[in-house]
Amino acid sequence: MTIPEQIIAKIKAYQTIIIHRHVNPDPDAIGSQVGLAEVIRNSYPDKKVYQVGSDTGNLAWLANAQPIDPALYQGALVITTDAANTPRISGEDYNQGAYLIKIDHHPNDEPYGDLNWVLPDASSTSEIIVDMINDSQGQLQLNQAAARVLYAGIVGDTGRFMFNSTTPHTMTCAAQLMTFDIQHDKINQRMNEITLEQAKLQGYLFDQLQVNDDQVAYLVVDQETQKRLNVSAQQVHSIVGTPGRLKGVLTWVIFVQQDDGTYRVHFRSKGPIINELAKQHDGGGHPLASGAKAADQAEIDTIITALSALAADYTAQ
Q1: What is the architecture, at CATH level 2, of domain 197-316?
Q2: What pTM, to 2 d.p., does this model score?
């Protein structure tokens, strides 16, 4: 059997199915997790299906997680979606089930679980879920609830179809999901929406962003700035893609200070491969979009220096 066929066989075999995604969820994490959950509920109404994890924050309008009794993991099938490695999985009980499946589109640097289905060339994990549904020969039935969140997942991870991961197949999947009357225009509007405070944060970025001679842009958003602008660390994510709009910026990094004083690091690139650098700082991700951590200003300086070296090597080629 193919891996998708094995996954479907496991879904059919288990009565309780618990689906996790990654921490600090983005639309693809929620879309793939909840989309799969809704498809299983629609296809097998007798099964108990749960979507678990931390608060979905600003994406609560898309879907929410469900609190569950840890005892439910006993004898359950557990599936993770869009979670590249175990530290990124939201929910500490993910390994307490009877069988664990990983479905993801990040590089498979940590092939955890009993069964892995990882396609790094896919635009999103949501696209992978759509493919599994379409190839299931009717064993998985798509419905409007699933189509809505899966569409949001694809839109989110392709940057509204602007990233190079977008393929003709990606557009075909999105078109299929739109046939379910999901009000795609309202989804797009909501995903593009920011608060007034986030708009002021955009202004702060353009005022404070540094761009060096290697075309590397960088910004630190510390706790004091977050409090002054009345934005949370999670809301700062809305500006991560903004430096890429600037002419003369090849790659960029944004450091967001967390409550414990450390920094969440957001890497983005128009060419230089940055996920190997992210791995050196307790992170990882896609070749052109990754995340990591920095303990202090010294590590921030180290990351900027290393990123500048990558950019310089890239332009010299």
Answers
A1: Roll (3.10)
A2: 0.90
Q: Under CATH, domain 3-191 is a member of which superfamily?
A: inorganic pyrophosphatase (n-terminal core) (3.90.1640.10)
Tokens of 18: 């618990």
Cite the beta strand spans of 185-283 per DSSP E: 210-211, 216-221, 251-257, 263-269
At 204 the pLDDT is 95
Q: Which two tokens stand for residue 112?
A: 């955890």
Q: What local confidence, expressed as pLDDT, does residue 235 receive?
A: 87
Q: What is d(CA 150, CA 31) in angstroms, rounded to the nearest whole number?
A: 5
Which residues in the chain come in under a pLDDT of 50?
Answer: none
Helix, strand, coil percentages, rounded to 5, for the chain: 45, 20, 40
d(CA 37, CA 21) in angstroms, rounded, equals 12
Strand partners of residue 194: none
